[in-house]
Design a protein that fits this description.
Helix content: 40-55%
CATH superfamily of the largest domain: Aldolase class I
Largest sheet: 8 strands, parallel
Order of helices and strands: HEHEHEHEHEHEHEHEHHEEHHHH
Oligomer: single chain
Shape: globular
Strand order of the largest sheet: 1-8-7-6-5-4-3-2
Number of helices: 14
Number of strands: 10
Strand content: 5-15%
Radius of gyration: 19 Å
Structural class: alpha/beta
Length: about 325
């Protein structure tokens, strides 16, 4: 089944002016103009990841490059974390606004301290949360959309370990703004499930890494295809900064160090988990050379389609699954 002639209408598609309510997550080292444009051209909303660019000036150029590859809407992700040596977040935000981007996805810190600028620029703001209480706080501070991230997700799922089957409807029940379901979604069945649970769109990261256009080595893509739902690891658990990544030599070593008697300080594992090391692994295809972020959805990834093939298939399969489920009602 294919989605030729199909479109979807939710508050998310109307707000973002997109054909399908499918959003590409902000992925470090992967969210380039090439990735974002491919998703947007396929009918979803692509995201350029701001901090993948080394400077605000480089981000401005990447946004311009994305505009050369698509005339469809796309957004920019800016994740803000408290760190010892933080990047110039204000300058990145200014670059995004000055580039005329219409959609901003934020994550990490509460948006209360940085929401004013994008709101003043009439940007649509999406904030990613891992708990309902954080989502309610973000809504109070004026964000337009909440992306709720379940425990299955790649990256940082928080410390409460609530899966999407509970977290999505819990968020929908208490929020008035539209909700995007994130974590564990990679096919039409997942899209259908998210809609039935009350979400009005989905966010995918890992699934988009295993597409033809993803700017990573083919061997990494194949590793995602080969992986099962058992092949992710939770690292940094003992440091209260849990992250879900692909099971490989590096993540195995980190987990072993965390569970040894006396535990581990982050300074000890920093060389293993350095971002530049993970970036190099994505580029070289050497899966065991660095941390590779991935969610449990790897267990549902069987091929490496184009973004257009993936989105069309998802929408068609979603329609089919919803139709089958409806037919069971007597």
């Amino acid at each position: 089944m294919n989605a030729k002639g199909l479109a979807m209408k939710t508050r998310i598609t109307e707000l973002l002016n997109i054909k399908y309510p499918i959003i590409q997550g902000g992925m470090m080292w992967v969210g380039t103009a090439d990735m974002a444009a491919a998703v947007s051209n396929a009918g979803g909303l692509g995201m350029v990841t701001a901090l993948t660019m080394p400077t605000p000036e480089a981000l401005s150029k990447e946004i311009a490059r994305c505009r050369e590859m698509t005339d469809k809407p796309f957004g920019v992700n800016l994740t803000i974390y408290p760190t010892i040596n933080p990047p110039p977040y204000d300058e990145y935000m200014d670059a995004i606004i000055e580039s005329g981007v219409k959609v901003l996805e934020t994550a990490g810190n509460s948006p209360k301290d940085f929401i004013a600028k994008p709101k003043a620029a009439n940007m649509i703001t999406i904030h990613k949360c891992v708990s309902v209480r954080h989502a309610l706080s973000a809504q109070r501070h004026g964000v337009d959309v909440i992306s709720i991230d379940g425990f299955e997700c790649a990256g940082h799922p928080g410390e409460e370990d609530i899966g999407g089957l509970v977290l999505i409807p819990a968020a929908v029940k208490q929020l008035s703004v539209p909700v995007i379901a994130s974590g564990g979604i990679g096919d039409g069945q997942g899209l259908a499930a998210a809609l039935v649970l009350g979400a009005e769109g989905v966010n995918m990261g890992t699934r988009f890494c295993a597409t033809a256009e993803a700017p990573i080595h083919d061997d990494i893509k194949q590793a995602l295809v080969n992986a099962t739902e058992h092949d992710t690891r939770l690292i940094f658990r003992t440091l209260n900064n849990t992250a879900r990544v692909l099971k490989n030599d590096i993540s195995d070593k980190v987990v072993a160090m965390e569970h040894r008697e006396g535990g581990v300080d982050f300074a000890e594992i920093r060389p293993l988990v350095a971002g530049k090391r993970g970036q190099a692994a994505l580029a070289s295809g050497h899966i065991n050379d660095g941390i590779v972020t991935a969610g449990q959805v790897v267990g549902l990834i069987d091929d490496i389609p184009t973004c257009a093939e993936l989105l069309d298939r998802m929408v068609a399969d979603c329609k089919e699954r919803l139709s089958i489920a409806s037919s069971w009602m007597q």
